[in-house]
Amino acid sequence: MAVDFSVILIIFLIISIVIAFGIGANDETFSGIYGSRILNMKQILILATIFAILGAIILGEAVSKTVGKGIFPDVTYEVVITILVSTAIWLILSSALGLPISTTHATIGAIIGLGIALGANLDWLKILELGLWWILSPIIGYVITFLVYKLLHQYKVKHLNGFQSYEKAEKSFSWIVLIVICITAFSRSGNDCSNAVGIVVGIGEDIDVTLLLVITGISLAGGLIVLGRGVIKSVGKITELHPSTAFTAQIPTAGILFLGTALGIPLSGSHMLVASLVGLSKASHTPVKKGLWKIVLIWFLTFPMAGLLAIIIYFPVNALI
């Protein structure tokens, strides 16, 4: 049954909006600000909204092209709808449970699973390159946070004397970490929006990518405002945070995300931030939240579940279009 392209495009747009909304709902970028009590939730959501829209519009195109054209050749309408729907289902399910997942992994997992099932000529070299980034980025986040905390702790011991001195230092770090997290939010929005529109870009039709990115940015902001506080609170409580320690956890995430987004590489901000928070916990000898195992489990399940969902959804979609 042939369906007019205008109808297909409307379907793409609706599902992309749902995914972008879900990505915003699952975005824990400002959890360090919440956990260290620098801003209240209302202030956090205002800032997060601004940078979600700006990041998608300014930085989103390069990563969207990698997701849409760099892995799965000859993308069809059926493939696009399947990837979008499977990503949306897994994202909404995880967000409902308050668990931060990698939407990037859900999207790429769906692309790989469906590609294997259909016998597509996947670009395995590109997949290997992305895989190395996904493995190394949380490890780098963990190590850098651990080392930065140790150096910062030594500085405090040598140079800070008394409560007033400590409070003054923490106040200074409040502004520093706020700037770092805003940079992270800007980069992450540019990276994450590819999961909502990247595969749509891959169909090769005359689609206004800029308009798609604007709509995606607004949808990301909507998800943050309506549902985002749950995941922000969940991740912000993984370990005890102060402005200076929140800074140590955010530095590697901000740097790696900005570099990856500029290079057009889809990355998981969730994995990097959570790995950094665990590194902070180990360095400072503070307890890790008991529910951390649930977050790690959902990470491991994302790839196979997204791939399986894509395979299951493809056949009814293929029959209808």
Features:
321 residues; mainly alpha; 12 helices; elongated
What does this structure look like?
This protein has 321 residues and is mainly α. It has one domain (5-320). 81% of the residues lie in helices and 0% in strands. α6 runs antiparallel to α10.
Topology:
Blueprint: H1 5-25, H2 31-35, H3 41-69, H4 77-96, H5 103-118, H6 124-159, H7 162-192, H8 194-201, H9 209-236, H10 243-262, H11 269-284, H12 292-320
Helix pairs in contact: 1-4, 1-8, 1-9, 3-7, 3-8, 3-9, 4-5, 4-8, 4-12, 5-12, 6-10, 6-11, 7-10, 10-11
Between the first and last Cα atoms, what is the distance in angstroms? 6 Å
Order of helices and strands: HHHHHHHHHHHH
Number of strands: 0
Structural class: mainly alpha
Shape summary = elongated
Count of discrete domains: 1
**What count of helical segments does DSSP give?**
12
Mean pLDDT: 83
Radius of gyration: 20 Å
Binned strand content:
under 5%
Q: How can the largest sheet be summarized?
A: none
Q: Helix amount, in percent?
A: over 70%
Low-confidence regions = none
